[in-house]
Amino acid sequence: MRRKIPVTLTAEEVGKLIKQPNANVPTGLRNKAILSLIWDSGARVSDVVNLRPGNINIGSKEVTVIGGKGDVDRNLSFSDYTGELLKKYKEARPKGDYFFCTLGGNKLDRVYLYGMIGRYAKRIGIGKKIGLHTLRHSFALKFYRDSGHDLIRLQKILGHKSLATTQIYCYMDGTDVKEGLEAYYNKRDSADKNIENRIKALEEEIRSLKADI
């Protein structure tokens, strides 16, 4: 079955998108922080809506995702800019079990978030049909390129159980899986003589698994 290629945005488009929410009102500040966090970290929408106040360490600029998709825990980093947004929102947020919540303190609805980003995209003339997951894909493609095609590191950040899932970004960038694996192993194990064997083994794993983004 042919895989659907994810829609992505340029860094410039994402920057314009993040500027749209009005940070002077609680919901706008919340939405701006959500957009910026996903762009910084590649978090899933489910990761964001399920974050608890204790999962965010603004001092160390790190988010801890507990029990993400596939029950994979991981730590994600964010920028100083996002940290400032999170700090301001933390001070203004309603009391609730979830960090990002409604004005009444309830858990955010994914349908609302999908509509929210659609409205912002329309304001700045983005004609593509996008959702919050588009920011995750945009982050992933940018990270893959900026990291020198480090496919395995990207896999860990995204929380993919199978490397076969992550390989879609090789295709989108016009590179091959071997290049992405070499970028990781050459950095980590420059003195390791078995790099080629590891790469071959992982390529076999990728061929044997069905990918699901």
How is this structure best described in words?
The chain is mainly alpha-helical. The chain folds into 2 domains: 11-134, Intergrase catalytic core (hpI Integrase, Chain A); 147-208, no CATH class. 54% of the residues lie in helices and 5% in strands. The chain contains 11 helices and 3 strands, in the order H-H-H-E-E-E-H-H-H-H-H-H-H-H. The chain has helices at residues 11-19, 26-41, 45-49, 80-92, 110-123, 132-146, 151-158, 163-166, 168-173, 177-188, 195-208; strands at 56-57, 62-65, 74-77. A 3-stranded antiparallel β-sheet has the order 1-2-3, with no helix packed on it. A hairpin with an 8-residue loop joins strand 2 and strand 3 (74-77). The longest helix is centred in the N-terminal third of the chain and has 16 residues, at 26-41. Residues 209-213 have low confidence and may be disordered.
What is the level 1 CATH name of the largest domain?
A: Mainly Alpha
How much is the average pLDDT?
Answer: 88
CATH superfamily membership of the largest domain: Intergrase catalytic core
Low-confidence stretches: 209-213
